Structure formats: C-alpha cells, structure tokens
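> call design_seq(struct)
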C-alpha cells in the first residue's frame, strides 16, 4: 500500500534567491534551491559520486556538483553535464503557509 508523507523543510523567507540549503527531514537529506521566487527540491547526494549538491554552484536552473562538476536541471533532474549519467531525483514542491514542503509517496 502506498502512503504519502509530507515534509516541512524550511520557511520561504529563510532563503534568498540563488541559495541552496541542505535539509534533513523524515530520514532523508534534501537540497532545497531558490531561483527568484520559485523553490525546488532534490536529493542532496549527487548520483555520480560522494558530492553533495548543497555544496555545489547554482546558475539559473542548473546545479553543478562540486565533486566532479557534473550538473543537473533542478526542475526535472535531467543530467546536463557528465560525468553524471543517472538523473537526479527531484520532488514536487508545495508552498504552505510560507513554508516549503514536499510530498513523497512512501511504501508501507
């Protein structure tokens, strides 16, 4: 049976445009990105190696991992630059009462 988990990650006002933050919630580690007034969330772990995307460089909608400089589109998880080849897991974001939340389907 599939159930849904909602994770409250951070207040919208706690981030400036261009910020990336590492947030732990529900036993997971997320990277939260702010591009202008939009928020995006992905797994923090790079799919290629031991790098954390929250330590990377955000340019527009592209996050570059600081470990091997591979990059992803934070909207879709699509690989933009190698050596990454596995897409990044991204999560749909909902803004609730001025907070960034994600809803994740969990197996029970």
């Amino acid at each position: 049976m599939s159930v849904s988990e909602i994770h409250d990650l951070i207040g919208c006002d706690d981030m400036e445009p261009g910020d990336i933050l590492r947030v732990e919630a529900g036993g997971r580690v997320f990277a939260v990105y702010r591009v202008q007034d939009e928020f995006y969330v992905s797994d923090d772990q790079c799919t290629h190696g031991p790098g954390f995307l929250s330590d990377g460089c955000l340019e527009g909608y592209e996050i570059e991992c600081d470990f091997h400089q591979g990059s992803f589109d934070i909207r879709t998880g699509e690989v933009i630059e190698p050596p990454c080849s596995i897409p990044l897991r991204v999560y749909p974001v909902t803004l609730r009462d001025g907070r960034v939340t994600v809803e994740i389907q969990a197996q029970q």
